[in-house]
Design goal:
The structure holds two protein chains of two kinds. By secondary structure, chain A is an alpha+beta fold. Chain A contains 24 helices and 30 strands. Chain A has a five-stranded antiparallel β-sheet with strand order 7-8-9-10-27. In chain A, strands 12-11-24-25-26 form a five-stranded antiparallel β-sheet, covered by helices on one side. In chain A, helix 7 runs antiparallel to helix 8 and helix 18 packs across helix 19. By secondary structure, chain B is an alpha/beta fold. The longest helix of chain B is centred in the last third of the chain and has 20 residues. Chain B is globular and about 65 Å long. The N terminus of chain B is likely disordered. The chains are: A alpha+beta, B alpha/beta.
């Protein structure tokens, strides 16, 4: 029996635990039981008081005080999910950055506190811990940056009101079906930081909104008896049935979180496919949990499972939880017929594969992520695209565009599949490169230039909310129908078979079909048409109720101009063309202004229903505004792998720039089955004259609608010579023939040799006979 | 009625200055854009160095407003409760104010050098003790209302202020609120918008609420509580409900609004009758509901004001209404609850006030009737519309009152609510409790309002 292995493993694990737990901490020795202890424990609030649900205004739970008596909070705080802001944190291999998406300005900026290449430090953009937490708390685990020290609190922060976003232990370890990430997101967006964990765990209902409280409110003040409608103080109504007579709660705590808990933040799926056709990771299908491989001790130093992690972190055990660690064994090369890895992982034979593949490729090249295609697959991830949050409105976003796989060479020299994203941002050219502008800086400078869709949606919403139309108002332009969606944006549909009398048209969708917003109307008809006038008045009142409207609402009909004068409908002569449909408009400076401008219509037609958010016209005007509003500096917009700027003629020009290069991070999942690996059907999976592996076309996409985006081949990302690879790939077409020729030649030579040998034997036999 | 600056501009700002700044919604933007003062970057030559005694809920409100006012540096905080001391010092540190922390105000006055003024935001029953000590130490004082829960103590504050020659501002902050100044001084009193005003109504109704608790780790030891005069943490945290320390809801809430009655009518009341009781909260000492009627003698004749405070229903919330022959006006410290006038049909036209920028015009709601004759009288005015007031206040409600105080300290401009005015208000408000207790009408002689 081979005893040294278990002993070595035990020693290694013990060393890892000791290292991760850190010096000076409580001993965290495992007693050997594989049972998950029952957690029937009292809940404690941030003042370390036992929560008694029947008491007036009980406070929310504090993990620092509820969990920490047994699980040292500061030890947990050093873990991978909470330590990005700590100086001693090892950055490790780049992972998915936080992506700051602002759809109004077309900003898609990768951020990270870990200094990963291609990302921006939040502080470099002027984002304090408060700002970062408000942006990303929806997918944060709490702790770390969300619990800043006193000296790190920006003066505009509201931590005193919101409370800290403590480490949310229950987000991973609560196995209850009540655990809701959507509730977490809802609470943190209300700035109910200290209440979020309680609500998300389903321990009680949390009402109120810290976001609206005055900055002088403090948790000991309790509810405000003067306001139960707007600035409502968050309170918890605990589920009393969960508490026993000693105020203990039975938690369904698990040591190894279920996959759903991990996937809340770590889902990745191809974009635009139905759920039933999405495969899961082969390991998951085989019954493994994420936590089976991505293990951690109390220090929550999660094993990430990449090659080189042991080197980066100094934790030797990490080598056992890589692809090679499990499938080839810990000491590759000693196994003969099969390795001794973790979890009964099958030993791959890789028969016929030249050894060079294992030296130059990571395992994930052939086994992980979407298979290579003519263009990389667009994927969406939880944190980037706000997945997994469900409510009446859509929370997820089509942007940012993430592509996978894109094969890049990492430090170890091995090709590795990556996800990449092309950044997009407004910036200022400086000596150190392009410095991004925050979205608020952009909107301050460009005003409402980028709000075309919002303007149209507000118009339609005003008509829908204020006007009793008996239907839904629609905007028709460019042969397509635009309608307001629940998120305050616009949806588009083709308008089939409509012969446009004018563009734009304002319609109302009724059960009888789409009818004009203002029906055909003869002003001087006898007898008069009260329905027509009533509708005109309703439209005018609806438009008059809009905030920040550009003028007085009027309706123009066959030379007549209808307007509201002190609440009464008045008709005046107007400089209107004959035989135009009834048209609502604005009256400003004694002139008619269209209800929606041509510029807005162009923008709507150019962006709604497309992956783009901005037109080149908008970009050009915004760059002019930025330069004019600020110091005449050199402002640019980065999108689609290009940097856009105003040339000497003031026209939009584009060029390559390092700031426009994509940010990338290696992917590991989903691992495909061996039968779905690259190379399973032969060398030509990759080595052919036009394989997707080497020659996929990778087109940069961004918020800007442009045909000037970057296009690059897969081999360019690999740093390989494409013509050589094409010729080398073509060689695989003739290799079978060569093999046959070689075989035939070998056979022929063999036959000749055999004949020669037979002849020689005959001669030898003749000589011997002669001598005898 | 004592001389005060009700009819004078405050803080060196004239009403027209305010209107110029605010009428086009500019003030909101201007004040909203002003950041809370940060570290030392904006130290003005006339920087005032102040201390805060009492850093509880109201102290925090004053501190937050002070941070928005240029040239104000908080250098010391005093509170008998460790929780409040810790909170205030941490909060101020965020804005770059390093403060000395004291538990006892005597120690503060003894050790803290370089003070110009003190903000007193302690419970009512010790206002006189803290304010008088500061005044005697040569410091100007901003003291939260109510001046005191005892007229004798309030009187001592007036006398001490006079004797010391220091300023004593009482925290009836509506007196400096530009919206109230515009509504009462300009529209009601100067322009007689409402004509003769003979009735006022105000209320502060709030939902029932539990007694306040406290984190157990911040319990003040009983000996320490006793040293400062509190019998228990319950009393300390809920002092407003106990007779030794406060004046009950009619004082805590009603005092703000009852003070306005005198401002609008231009006189102190001549009598008050009241009814109330401890009908709901059996574990509290003060009346949880009070209704009272004041009578005033104005140059134009008698006027009356009805007031109620309820602590078990928030129906209607809090607002003040002034009713005159030509219209009425609804005000509230929260503009959404009251910031408009309503015109009687027979009243002189108000359009000229709109043109002057003193009022905003609001279209009357239209009611349609079912008729085919669309060009004739098919639409009628259903009810009088509201005429919103054009003045906004985007800063915290207490900020203008503090600015008025600091302006007086720096430049000698008049206080909005000096001790004498605060005393008059205290007389009117505290008497309601007497009327409830004794079930009798309380008559005021004019000299009762004088110190």
């Amino acid at each position: 029996m081979n005893r040294p292995f278990p002993i070595a493993l035990a020693v290694t694990l013990a060393a890892a635990l000791t290292t991760a737990a850190g010096s000076g901490q409580k001993p965290q020795d495992w007693d050997g039981s594989r049972v998950t202890p029952v957690h029937r424990i009292p809940l404690k609030d941030e003042f370390n008081q036992v929560i008694i649900p029947g008491e007036p205004n009980p406070l929310p739970i504090s993990s620092r005080n509820t969990c920490a008596p047994c699980h040292d909070y500061d030890t947990v705080r050093r873990g991978l999910h909470f330590n990005a802001d700590r100086e001693e944190a090892v950055p490790g291999r780049p992972g998915e950055p936080w992506i700051w998406l602002d759809e109004t300005t077309g900003t898609v900026l990768p951020l990270s506190y870990r200094g990963w290449p291609g990302t921006w430090q939040p502080s470099a953009l002027g984002l304090a811990a408060w700002d970062f937490t408000r942006l990303f708390a929806r997918h944060m685990t709490g702790g770390g940056i969300a619990e800043p020290a006193l000296e790190a609190r920006a003066s505009h922060s509201r931590w005193e009101v919101s409370g800290n976003l403590e480490i949310n232990c229950l987000a991973c370890h609560n196995a209850s079906r009540r655990q809701s990430h959507s509730e977490w997101a809802r609470q943190v967006l209300r700035e109910n930081f200290r209440w979020a964990a309680t609500a998300a765990a389903g321990l009680g209902e949390v009402g109120g909104m810290a976001l609206r409280l005055p900055s002088t409110w403090d948790i000991i003040d309790g509810p405000n008896p003067d306001d139960s409608e707007y600035a409502v103080v968050p309170t918890v109504a605990y589920r009393r049935g969960d508490f026993d007579s000693a105020h203990n709660v039975d938690f369904e705590i698990v040591h190894r979180p279920g996959d759903d808990r991990c996937l809340v933040c770590h889902s990745t799926s191809p974009a635009g496919i139905p759920q039933f056709s999405a495969d899961s990771d082969v390991h998951s299908s085989a019954g493994l949990l994420c936590a089976d491989c991505h293990r951690n001790d109390l220090g929550h130093g999660m094993l990430r499972g990449y090659e080189g992690e042991a080197r980066d972190t100094g934790r030797a055990v990490a080598d056992q939880f890589t692809c090679r660690g499990c499938h080839l064994g810990f000491e590759d090369g000693k196994k003969g017929g099969g390795g001794v890895g973790r979890l009964g992982a099958p030993y791959p034979e890789h028969k016929g594969f030249p050894k060079v593949h294992f030296e130059r490729l990571s395992c994930t090249v052939c086994h992980s992520g979407p298979p290579p295609a003519g263009e990389p697959t667009r994927v969406r991830t939880s944190r980037a695209n706000r997945l997994g949050i469900y409510g009446v409105a859509r929370w997820d976003t089509p942007l940012p565009d993430l592509l996978a796989p894109v094969f890049l060479r990492r430090e170890e020299g091995r090709l590795t599949p990556h996800r990449i994203m092309w950044p997009a941002f407004w910036g200022r050219r400086a000596s150190e490169g392009v410095v991004p502008l925050r979205p608020d800086e952009v909107t301050e400078a460009v005003g409402d230039l980028l709000l075309s869709i919002e303007r149209a949606a507000r118009l339609l919403s005003a008509l829908a909310l204020t006007l009793d139309l008996g239907g839904e108002p629609l905007l028709v332009t460019g042969g397509r129908v635009f309608r307001v969606n629940m998120d305050g944006g616009l949806d588009v549909e083709d308008q089939a078979g409509k012969d446009l009398a004018a563009d734009p048209l304002w319609l109302v969708r009724t059960e009888q079909g789409d009818v004009p917003l203002i029906p055909a109307f003869v002003p001087d008809a006898e007898p008069p048409d009260p329905e027509g006038e009533t509708r005109i008045q309703a439209v005018l009142e609806a438009l008059a109720a809009m905030e920040n409207r550009p003028g007085e609402p009027v309706v123009m009909i066959r030379g007549g101009l209808y307007r509201l004068v002190e609440g009464f409908l008045e008709k005046q002569e107007a400089p209107a063309e004959e035989d135009v449909p009834p048209t609502p408009a604005w009256w400003r400076n004694e002139a008619l202004v269209p209800l929606i401008s041509e510029f807005d219509l162009r923008t709507i037609r150019g962006t709604v229903g497309t992956p783009s958010l901005l037109t080149e016209e908008q970009a050009e005007l915004a760059l002019v505004a930025l330069a004019g509003e600020n110091d005449g500096g050199d402002y640019v917009y980065v999108s689609g792998g290009r940097m856009f700027f105003l040339d000497e003629d003031g026209r939009l020009a584009a060029e390559q720039n390092p700031a426009a290069e994509p940010v990338s991070w290696p992917l590991a999942h989903n691992v495909r089955s061996a039968r779905q690996s690259l190379g399973i059907t032969g060398c030509t999976d990759c080595h052919s004259g036009g394989s997707d592996f080497f020659f996929a076309s990778i087109r940069a996409r961004g918020p800007l609608a442009t045909d000037r985006g970057a296009v690059r081949s897969a081999s360019a990302f690999m740093g390989m010579d494409a013509p050589f690879q094409r010729i080398y790939g073509l060689s695989f077409l003739v290799r079978p023939v060569l093999k046959w020729l070689l075989g035939a030649a070998s056979l022929l030579v063999g036959l000749l040799l055999l004949t020669a040998a037979a002849l020689a034997m005959g001669r030898l036999a003749g000589l011997l006979e002669k001598r005898r | 009625m004592s001389e005060n600056n009700r009819d004078k501009p405050t803080s060196g700002w004239s009403r027209r200055d305010f209107l110029k700044t605010t009428a086009a919604a500019g003030l909101g933007a201007a004040l909203a854009a002003r950041p809370l003062s940060g570290a030392q970057e904006n130290v003005a030559a006339d920087e005032l160095r102040i201390a805060v005694i009492g850093a509880g809920e109201q102290g925090r409100v004053l501190i937050e407003s002070c941070l928005r006012i240029p040239g104000i540096r908080i250098i010391a905080v005093c509170d008998i409760w460790e929780y409040s001391r810790r909170y205030a010092s941490r909060y101020l540190k965020k804005y770059g104010h390093e403060v000395s922390i004291f538990t006892d105000y005597r120690e503060l006055l003894d050790k803290q050098k370089g003070l110009d003024a003190v903000l007193v935001a302690t419970p009512d029953w010790v206002h006189h003790e803290h304010a008088n000590a500061c005044l005697n130490a040569g410091l100007h004082v901003y003291c939260e209302k109510e001046m005191s829960n005892s007229l004798e103590r309030a009187r001592s504050m007036v006398l001490t202020a006079r004797r010391s020659g220091r300023l004593l501002q009482i925290g009836h902050q509506r007196r400096s609120n530009p919206r109230y100044l515009h509504a009462i001084d300009t529209l009601i009193r100067e322009r007689s918008l409402l004509g003769r005003v003979n009735l006022a109504y105000a209320q502060w109704n709030r939902s029932k609420s539990d007694m306040r608790g406290w984190p157990k780790q911040y319990v003040i030891p009983q000996a320490e509580l006793s040293r400062f005069g509190y019998s228990s943490m319950t009393h300390f945290r809920n002092w407003r409900w106990f007779k030794k320390y406060g004046g009950g809801p009619i004082v805590d809430l009603g005092s703000h609004q009852i003070d306005l009655f005198s401002w609008v009518f231009g006189s102190n009341p001549r009598r008050v009758m009241a009814s109330g009781g401890r009908d709901f909260y059996k574990n509290r000492e003060w009346y949880d509901n009070v209704m009272c009627i004041y009578e005033f003698s104005t140059p134009e004749g008698a006027a009356r004001a009805l007031y109620q405070v309820q602590t078990t229903t928030k129906h209607g919330g809090f607002y003040e209404t002034f009713m005159g022959e030509n219209g009425s006006m609804v005000l509230s410290e929260v503009p959404q609850k009251g910031n408009w006038a309503m015109r009687e049909a027979h009243a002189p036209e108000w359009d000229s006030l709109v043109k002057e920028g003193l009022l905003l015009s609001e279209k009357p709601p239209i009611q349609k009737v079912d008729t085919r004759n669309v060009f004739l009288d098919v639409r009628v005015t259903a009810e009088a519309g509201r005429w919103p007031l054009p003045v906004e206040l985007a800063s915290p409600a207490h900020q203008p009152h503090l600015e008025n105080f600091f302006g007086a300290v720096r430049h000698g401009t008049p206080l909005s609510c000096p001790a004498e005015v605060g005393y008059e208000s205290a007389v009117a408000v505290l008497s309601v409790n007497d009327a409830v207790r004794d079930r009798r009408q309380v008559d005021f002689r004019p000299e009762r309002f004088r110190v």
